[in-house]
Design brief:
This protein is α+β, with helices and mostly antiparallel strands. Helices cover 28% and strands 49% of the residues.
């Protein structure tokens, strides 16, 4: 994707972690921010691709498993 004047693309996230009985709920959102040559946001949109979130939570799950195994 070519964006005229866009120099940097960043991904920002916000997360909410809360207890739910004996479990923990994690809610996260990702936003893509495209910045121009002056560092100003030219375009901001929420990432809504299911695969993006599935990949993220898969990595979190793997990290938790490794931590529990003390690998």
């Amino acid at each position: 994707m070519a964006w005229k004047g866009i120099r940097v693309a960043t991904i920002e996230s916000t997360a909410n972690v809360s207890e739910f009985g004996k479990e923990i709920r994690v809610r996260i959102t990702f936003k893509r921010k495209l910045l121009n040559t002056y560092g100003n946001a030219q375009f901001i949109d929420e990432i809504s691709d299911e695969k993006y979130y599935q990949d993220f939570f898969s990595k979190v799950d793997k990290a938790i498993f490794i931590q529990k195994q003390k690998i």
